[in-house]
Fold this protein.
Amino acid sequence: MSDKEKTEAEKELATKNVRLVIILGLIAFGFYVGIFLMYS
Amino acid sequence: MSYAAVHDDHHDHDHKPTGIGRWLFSTNHKDIGTMYLVFSLIMFFVGGAMAMVIRLELFQPGMQFVDPQFFNSMTTVHALVMIFGALMPAGVGLANWMIPIMIGAPDMAMPRMNNMSFWILPFAFTLLLSTFFMQGGAPAGGWTMYPPLVLQLGDGFPFLIFAVHFLGISSIMGAINIIATVFNMRAPGMTFMRLPLFVWTWIITAFLLIASMPVLAGAVTMLLTDKFFGTAFFDAAGGGDPVLFQHVFWFFGHPEVYILVLPSFGIISQIIPTFARKPLFGYASMVYATASIAFLSFFVWAHHMFAVGMPLTGELFFMYATMAIAVPTGVKIFNWTATMWKGSMTFETPMLFSIGVLFMFSLGGFSGLMMGITPVDFQYHDTYFIVAHFHYVIVPGIIFGVIAGIYYWLPKWTGVMYDETLGKWHFWLSTISVNVLFFPMHFIGLAGMPRRIPDYSTQFADWNAIISIGGFVFGFSQLILVWVVIKCARGDGEKATDQVWEGAHGLEFTLPSPPPFHSFTTPPEVTDATAHS
């Protein structure tokens, strides 16, 4: 489905999903870097 | 909109891609779930073949078939393949298939990321298994990759490290996807306390993955820099500490046990109420117990390494924390038993495997409590008693749970009932052989037989022969499962109804069997009547 065919609700849901994925991804990456920095 | 109307809508738009592209570029949660499950089954047999080599060599004392280095590679890669290639993908595969249709979502939140999470796996295992053909051979220092031993690995070392990184990335992406799906894409009325237990266990598992996998990735990155970039994180000569690796590894490693076992708990929490024809006893306490187990799992890691020596306060802390985990686990065992109590029970194959989990996981749990007692652990450490313990947790505790889930949902996936006679043969052969395989390991472990050795004293010969026979029977029994799955996939069997099982509840059982390629494109309204709880 192209972006033009998406309803407002679908676009809003996609934004919410991407936002949550980025937050959780940053948390995971933070743990990775954190463990490395803690023992550096 | 009624469910019947929703179904009509699905059939109108049930266009499937065709050819190899359907699988390579799939963004459909059912197809990706199927690929995860097939990959897991293949890895189960690859890891199982390595277990057969181990048991063949240990059938008699003395060196018969393989050299010690290859034997060590077998024990190491068997564990890596089973944990990261068979068990974790099986859990993610079931999550992919079932979570969207259990919560009334049309698909996973990030379907393209879902595709990538899966296709990383074959790539990572190609890296790992290719080490068998390299100078220095495959990893042989144990799946725990302890330095300095692991640093002695030859050309395969960076391949091992990159494989672990890729497996971690795949798991984290899968976990994030599951959280986003459950948090943002539940159908109207599907509140958190109406979620099926399988979904709850997966949310908690996903958070465990996000918190623990990066720690493993950090630890193995430090190994990589120690080997190639002159750092000394784990090198005592450079001011580092090899024991630090053990702490960091087990900070990942113990939650990993619950990453593997919680989805199995979720599966049997779906199955037992169905075949007891009663709602799950203590739904809320099951959710809180699962969360408690996950929380406590971050405070027990050093019980894996009492023998390295640590201050008495540390030993006491980790001993009591380990004991504490038995409390929420006991709550779950009690609730499953109470669900069956005075239920109108029948014993189809999924229920048999679930009861198997209940009994035999408890056995593994009890031996875990024994080795959680610090002074006693010094006796058990690095013996076959440990091998018996964790195999009771993993094989009848986790693999039986996954198998129960496969039998339970296979008619829903394929639209065909599996062969119940073959299922029962599979259960009884597996249950008898798994106990012949692992129970005597308690005896030889207590008698002092060390783990990870290709040869042993003649005093252990009889039990080892019996264990090996159990192993071969268990391994070959699993071919029954393959045959059952192939028969269903070919449509060979009685047509399954939409509800499949008389006592089944939940949104997934309101869909046709098999469900349409695109399901719940219009979200259903969830009420108490259609929710699991």
In short: Residues 8-38 of chain A form the longest helix (31 residues).
